[in-house]
From TrEMBL:
It comes from Castellaniella ginsengisoli. This is Glycerol-3-phosphate dehydrogenase [NAD(P)+]. The gene is gpsA. Catalyzes the reduction of the glycolytic intermediate dihydroxyacetone phosphate (DHAP) to sn-glycerol 3-phosphate (G3P), the key precursor for phospholipid synthesis. Its EC number is 1.1.1.94. The lineage of its organism: Bacteria, Pseudomonadati, Pseudomonadota, Betaproteobacteria, Burkholderiales. SUPFAM superfamilies: 6-phosphogluconate dehydrogenase C-terminal domain-like, NAD(P)-binding Rossmann-fold domains.
Length: 327
């Protein structure tokens, strides 16, 4: 998206072959097969060179890093940034750092902003935030319109993201509710697995709508208990991303659920190395819910099917047999 409007967008890729394909053929055959990338987009596999590109750019008001790695790589990449960043003084121009990660650490139950704060502490010029919302990478790469949310404690972060993306096909909204946005992004993946299972079982569109609506209630319950704002969950990072991921065929989390509903095993589905963050964070969401004394029945059902050998049909029956309650 950035490279469609400006000439200084640079991707850091771990794999030099991937960087070469982006530079020479304007293609990313592994992750975005068949899509022509903007010729202005350049790539490097040299981590230090990528950071220098941000710090040495012509406009100090324009320093933006977007971390598009899965949750499993977030701490590691932040530590690499911490090691490579020079010691800037307190008056240095800000560097804005956004992450796209949607999940919870399966071991420590930490949220992305907590992982970033630990790995990159005490840098007053570093402004951080989360970039989230309904956004299949493939559609963004095709140049189709997308609306996203940036959440950061410092309003500068939202403004920097808005300025950077202005003129592209991406429209950025701002909020300060980092926790709410992160809970929305992580939990919608669990709900997308639930909707996929329901669709894989051919339970119909009524069932899917029920799971989306009650799933949103569940996401909001956990998010508010953790300090998020209730109205964040009817915004792009809540309802918007939930609807997209629970219904869009491009969703990998939904695809995992559909395949399970059709009778495949989780091990078999994930054997190709697909990133489906909902699988990695469902247990952590369940544990956080229990710690806060919350009822998260759909999350429990997804955990039962993914990890405890509960048959999908049994999980549906258990959800329907719960005691009646007010909406
Ligand atoms: N793909 C999407 O449509 C999309 C949209 C919005 C948000 N997200 C979220 O963004 C995050 C990244 O998703 P993705 O689909 O781009 O993941 P991905 O699995 O496609 O990986 C993205 C890139 O990160 C690299 N990577 C993986 N582990 C790494 C590590 N340890 N260190 C450095 N690089 C590493 C990969 O090689 C790849 O180039 C996820 O949390 C996902 O939920 C994805
Ligand atoms: O493919 P998924 O299920 O990880 O979803 C991708 C994005 O998070 C959608 O906003």
């Amino acid at each position: 998206a950035l490279a469609s409007a400006r000439s200084d967008a640079l991707i850091w890729a771990r794999d030099p072959e991937q960087a070469r394909a982006i530079n020479q053929q304007h293609l990313n055959p592994r992750y975005l097969p068949g899509i022509d990338l903007p010729p202005a987009l350049r790539a490097t596999s040299d981590f230090d060179a990528a950071l220098a590109h941000v710090l040495d750019g012509p406009d100090p008001a324009d320093r933006l890093i977007v971390l598009g790695v899965p949750m499993a790589g977030l701490a590691d990449v932040c530590r690499r940034i911490a090691q490579a960043l020079p010691a800037l003084g307190p008056d240095a121009a800000p560097v804005h750092l956004l992450w796209t990660c949607k999940g919870i650490s399966p071991d420590t139950h930490e949220w992305p902003h907590q992982i970033v704060a630990q790995a990159l502490p005490d840098r007053p010029w570093l402004r951080t935030g989360v970039l989230s919302g309904p956004s299949f990478a493939r559609e963004v790469a095709q140049g189709l319109p997308v609306a996203l949310t940036v959440a950061g404690r410092d309003p500068d972060t939202t403004r920097a993201a808005q300025a950077a993306f202005h003129g592209t096909r991406a429209r950025i909204y701002g909020t300060r509710d980092v926790m709410g946005v992160e809970v929305g992004g992580a939990l919608k993946n669990v709900m997308a697995i639930a909707c996929g299972i329901s669709d894989g079982l051919r339970l119909g569109t009524n069932a899917r709508a029920a799971l989306i609506t009650r799933g949103l209630a569940e996401i909001q319950r956990l998010g508010v208990a953790l300090g998020g704002q209730a109205d964040t969950f009817i915004g792009l990072a809540g309802l918007g991303d939930l609807v997209l991921t629970a219904t869009g065929e491009l969703s990998r989390n939904r695809q995992v659920g559909v395949a399970i509903g059709q009778g495949r095993t989780l091990e078999d589905i994930l054997a190709g190395g697909m990133t489906a963050e909902g699988v990695r964070c469902a247990r952590a969401a369940q544990a956080l819910g229990r710690r806060h004394g919350l009822d998260l029945p759909i999350t429990d059902a997804v955990c039962g099917v993914l990890f405890d050998g509960v048959a999908p049909t049994q999980a549906v029956a258990a959800l329907l047999a719960r005691d009646p309650r007010d909406e």
